[in-house]
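for the recovery benchmark. tokens below, seq after
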């Protein structure tokens, strides 16, 4: 069997070339197989290393195409690791691409997170033993192992040189600055000084995950949900105050808690798979076109199950479902489907009840109550999931329960500011969420 085909059809838990999410797999199967003649890669040494040594330490779920194509230029994306190890590997996605993506060179390097320069010379990254890789439209690749020692909360610059003209996939909100060279400037992936990276973007392009090799880690938790997971509000430190690039999402705060409060042999990585505006259910009548097809079930395969070492999911959905016209029955149907698929993979599920939002109607509040009752039953969704994250209690204004507590409010009544992000991280029970970890 062809190497590409074998890895595409292989176990969902093994590192490999993957296509689009399961919901799109049937429609794109023929194009993916046709593309098997192109070069595409999985970790070359993945087969001879125990899969338990690899954990996804950072993620940024792709959601659409960038508005501007790349033209023979380099990109440098700053990734923030929740845990470190003695090596890394990266995932490059072309999920939403309409044409093959050619990466001529890739590097990784420590970064200060403050600009496009690197701390030390970037190290080359290969794909199936070669520097060049072609990612088919609708596909993705994982790199080979790159020897780079990292620690918890380290920043790593991932640089890619893209040839030809291609519109890259992106995660819209990086909540930090990432960098590009000017069109036509070619390969600057090995540059340490960063001066060639004269352009910037607030999105994350092409790179969607970074794994670390660390056999002492016990798992990876994936935060899965909409904008409050994604990080909206996490740069807000008050009126006319913003801290972009400070990594202050509640998932970042949780990762720091894990590092500071748990011994090394009990730690887990945290990966963020949030996309703003998305819903749990696919059936809400008022889902906006930009996020249609990005519901929880549709993207579960590529944004959670395709990651490595995943032992638990922190599930934060529902408020957008209500705003988009879904009722409790539709929301709970989606919950049950997603939770069933996760638990079938041996992944535990921790759920937050639907959080406050101004403008909930009486019907919305009844539906919210029904979903909250389901989540709270036996403190673990009545056996459907494994634990409750009481984020609704943390964020709720005690005087106006449909609003965010003022000290935590960005001003829109929906999203938590930096103080609220920390409060969400602080309420998470580490013994509960680390009980998912491998022994």
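predicted aa per position
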């Amino acid at each position: 069997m062809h190497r590409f085909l074998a890895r595409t059809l292989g176990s969902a838990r093994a590192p490999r070339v993957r296509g689009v999410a399961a919901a799109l797999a049937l429609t794109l199967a023929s194009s993916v197989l046709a593309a098997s003649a192109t070069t595409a890669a999985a970790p070359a040494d993945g087969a001879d290393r125990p899969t338990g040594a690899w954990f996804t330490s950072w993620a940024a779920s792709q959601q659409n195409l960038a508005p501007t194509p790349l033209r023979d230029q380099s990109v440098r994306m700053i990734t923030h690791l929740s845990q470190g190890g003695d090596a890394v590997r990266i995932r490059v996605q072309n999920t939403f691409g309409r044409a093959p993506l050619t990466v001529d060179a890739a590097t990784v390097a420590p970064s200060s997170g403050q600009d496009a320069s690197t701390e030390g010379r970037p190290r080359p990254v290969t794909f199936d033993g070669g520097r060049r890789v072609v990612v088919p439209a609708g596909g993705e690749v994982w790199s080979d192992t790159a020897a780079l020692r990292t620690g918890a909360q380290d920043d790593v610059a991932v640089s890619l040189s893209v040839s030809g003209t291609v519109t890259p996939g992106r995660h819209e909100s990086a909540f930090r600055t990432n960098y590009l060279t000017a069109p036509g400037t070619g390969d600057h992936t090995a540059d340490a000084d960063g001066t060639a990276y004269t352009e910037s973007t607030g999105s994350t392009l092409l790179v969607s995950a970074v794994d670390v090799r660390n056999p002492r880690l016990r798992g990876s938790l994936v935060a899965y949900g909409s904008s409050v997971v994604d990080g909206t509000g996490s740069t807000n430190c008050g009126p006319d105050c913003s801290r972009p690039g400070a990594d202050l999402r509640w998932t970042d705060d949780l990762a720091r808690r894990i590092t500071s409060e748990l011994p090394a042999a009990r730690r887990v990585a945290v990966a963020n798979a949030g996309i703003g505006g998305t819903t749990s259910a696919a059936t809400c009548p008022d889902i906006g076109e930009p996020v249609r097809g990005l519901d929880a079930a549709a993207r579960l395969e590529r944004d959670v199950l395709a990651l490595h070492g995943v032992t638990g999911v922190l599930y934060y959905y529902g408020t957008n479902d209500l705003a988009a016209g879904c009722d409790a029955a539709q929301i709970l149907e989606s919950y049950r489907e997603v939770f069933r698929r996760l638990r079938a993979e041996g992944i535990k599920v921790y759920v937050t009840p639907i959080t406050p939002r101004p403008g909930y109607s009486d019907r919305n509040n009844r539906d919210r109550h029904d979903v909250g009752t389901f989540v709270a039953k036996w403190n673990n969704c009545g056996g459907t999931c494994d634990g409750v994250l009481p984020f609704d209690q943390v964020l709720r204004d005690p005087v106006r329960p449909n609003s965010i507590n003022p000290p935590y409010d960005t001003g829109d009544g929906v999203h938590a500011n930096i103080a609220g992000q920390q409060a969400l991280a602080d309420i998470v029970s580490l013994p509960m969420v680390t009980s998912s970890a491998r022994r």
